[in-house]
Amino acid sequence: MEELLNYLHLQAKAVPISGGDINQAYRVTDGEKDYFLKYHPQMSADFFQAEVDGLAELKNAVRVPKTYQHGSFKDTAFLLMEWIEPGEGNQKDLAHELSKLHKINALKFGYKRNNFMGLLPQVNQKSDDWWEFYFTNRLEVQIKIAKGRNRWTIEREKEYSLFKDRVYQKWGTMSFEPTLLHGDFWSGNTFFDTQGQPVFVDPAVSYGHREVDIAMSQLFGGFRQEFLDSYQEILPMQSGWQDRLTIYQLYYLLVHLNIFGESYGDSVDRVLALGGK
Ligand code: ADP
């Protein structure tokens, strides 16, 4: 840390920032201006390049921190960003800002590059077919990782096959539009600036079905009912959206199974058994 700060001609301002799961994050200063510095040892520079690209994509619609410098120094990847002083805001404005992202369309599902979900790979091969994209690029990439980590049982494989059939049977003919997604929309990845404007950080962007962001927002708490009600008012979701949330939550639960282990196994099994019904 000390060496990296010297290299960047910065000083640490205070204690580490809590809230992030993945990287070390600090408020730092050059004596005049404050910055937000994230770094990760033993990580390629592409890791933060993906974040810079994602923030640039979101910037067209919502407030994100400016990115100043990124790269790697002695095997440590780093990203230096604008420090945004946190303040108070309301759930209605947050819903409004999220809906702005979800109004940006693309021709296909996917994204121009692969990126990361936490430290895990997120594959974004473009596709015209939402379910093909979601099963192949999202669920099955994580299932492959789970197999490699001995977290995927025969039982889970069977349940997954039933789950997939069910989703195709029930929702296979419904059509969805590819829209810009934050991609990791939990409460730790959004806050308000001192003017009350929502700020979006740490994205895992792609173009997909917008209910994926809504599903993530409802998985671990932190968003109030007012958020959901306002979103529904501003940009109503297609019928059956409540029944599709668990389908999309499965992706994030698999990611958690892969990162944190079997403590997420029961939730994965529950969603595999019920998802899409
Ligand atoms: P990680 O990649 O480790 O998850 P995040 O980018 O999510 O780290 O940042 C961790 C926390 O720091 C966030 O939850 C947010 O509260 C705060 N934060 C993120 N970016 C900024 C910023 N530019 N200015 C001020 N605080 C920030």
CATH fold call of the largest domain: Aminoglycoside 3'-phosphotransferase, Chain: A, domain 2
Strand order of the largest sheet: 1-2-3-5-4
How do the SSEs run, as a string of H and E? HEEEHEEEHEEHHEEEEHHHH
Strand content: 15-25%
From the helix content, strand content and strand pairing, which structural class follows?
Answer: alpha+beta
Number of domains: 2
The total of beta strands comes to: 12
* The CATH homologous superfamily of the largest domain: Aminoglycoside phosphotransferase (APH), C-terminal lobe
Sheet of most strands: 5 strands, antiparallel
Unreliable segments of 5+ consecutive residues: none
How many H/I helices?
A: 9
**From the 3D coordinates, which CATH architecture of the largest domain would you assign?**
Alpha-Beta Complex
Q: Shape, please?
A: globular
InterPro entries: Fructo-/Ketosamine-3-kinase, Kinase-like_dom_sf
Keywords: Kinase, Transferase
Family: Belongs to the fructosamine kinase family.
Protein name: Fructosamine kinase family protein
